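User: I'm preparing a small set of examples for a lab meeting where we compare how different chains pack in three dimensions. I only have the primary sequence for this one, and I'd like the structure in token form so I can line it up with the others. Please keep the answer compact; I'll paste it straight into my notes.
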Amino acid sequence: MTQTLATALLHALKDRGADRLFGIPGDFVLPLFRVIEESAILPLHTLSHEPGVGYAADAAGRITSTLGVAVVTYGAGALNMVNAVAQAYAEKSPLVVISGAPGAQEGKLGLSLHHQVKTLNSQFEIYRELTCAQAALNDPATAPAEIARVLDAARLYSRPVYLEVPRDLVNAPCAAVPAFDPAPTDPEAARACAKEILGRMRKASAPAILVGVEARRYGIEDKIAGLCRKLGLPAATSFMGRGLLARQDLPLMGAYLGSAGSETAARYVEGADCLLMLGVIVSDTNFGVSGRNIDLRGAIQALDRSVTFSHHTYPQVTLEALVDAMTELAEPLDHARPNAHAPDYARGLPDDDTPLAPAHVAQAVNDLFDAHGRMPIATDIGDCLFTGLEIVDTEFVAPGYYASMGLGVPAGMAIAACTGRRPIVLVGDGAFQMTGWELGNCRKYGWAPDRDRVQQPELGNAARLSAGAVLSRPRRLALCRDRGASGRPRRARTDLRGAGSRAGRGPCRRQPLSADRGDAAPWPDLRLARPLRRRGARDVGAQGRMSAAPIRAPCFHLAGNTHGAAPAGNAQFPPVVSRQRLTSG
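Assistant: Understood. Below is the structure token output for the 585-residue chain.
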């Protein structure tokens, strides 16, 4: 195939680690979608709503430590995805936004074009604020260098970037994009920085290590774990870094969230007289909005390709370069071992008719992990996110800082697509109404969700809600069934235990479903939702509004999902969905 602007772009994405695309077609991007489909350079997953595309692509980048890619149309598509991109920027996720655009000659017609806002350049200017690098690929001659510059910025800075592709240039001849060229680092500067830090840690009586999201973004969790082992120190993670180091043989003090989180992590971090912060975003959520503040002036901060402590700054020392230099020079700090122990996560959910409470969710998941192994988790905001802190350490994708609703379901789908592993999704009613519709796309990729709706009618009122804005329980269950999932209410701890045991069964297969093969592919799912009808309250649409009493102990959706297929008749795979719903595509 002759190299074109579109194929050059796709090959550049693949060469820099992207392994799939998420998108929604539209007229300005249809020529690019045609090339994506015909070239098969990268697989494409189409979803139903641009925010879901953005969240899924963001989560793909987070879970795989590489580029996540979202492909949308001009104006109505890309602008509908702004909030998801803003979250990726705030939380340092390397999301690549590719937007179709009007043809190079269309803007000369003297007419306002559909999807245009103020000027044809309005969308580009909006995305300039949300991304760390941007380019409009208006000239095939300069496109290779521009593509390399923008994609390399996503890799180097772990932030979203933006590329605009005019629809009449998609098939224009184009040279290959230069290979990824990481910015050079100064090894002598990294060694000097490492020596100074290690000297401070040796003099400290209680040094501590706090690990943040850059460890996952740059794929160096194993290196950080090796440094911790060599120093003889455990580690805590930031709130946003929950789930980091989960697969490493390393004592973890839990996720630090000030007085609102793990007491073990709080004692470890706040009691440190030399706190080494590796890739930790300095934000209110990461530091618990706590009265027991950490003195950041005495902390060592390695973030954004520089290291800062006291009045010293080492520019252009990356986190990886620092960790490599420290590991080379480190010696055990036996005298500095903290008197702390890893958090004790609750297990052993009783098998009785006690009404469900939020703590039971975490307990059930911990039991599930003990029985079947740990699974990655995607969670939405609020109580779902905080319940996740009570679950044993595992890979964790969550909007811990920007806190936008809607990530959970698309992130769970992205985890299944990217890893072939079975994710658990924690999502509340509001977020499920925003992005739960995306479950309708599961069939064409061989994912067959099974939703167990677990309810607790004694958990208090849902919130102040507008008339007609919320689906009632039966309608939500019907929605799940219509989109390829079974659903059933569960209210007691014994119900949750039964659902959890089913969610852990069976291997995870990657092949799509085949009606001819007779496959039955359960995507087991525990769904804990805050019910909208409490203690006799009627549907919102009929009643007008619900009680305005505050939420005291809301419940959650808990979803454990299997991606793929298994042969019919396998005893490990109960026929939870009818085979008529399992046809691929």
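A couple of notes for your slides: The CA atoms of residues 51 and 81 lie 5 Å apart. The first strand starts at residue 21 and ends at 23.

User: Perfect, thanks.
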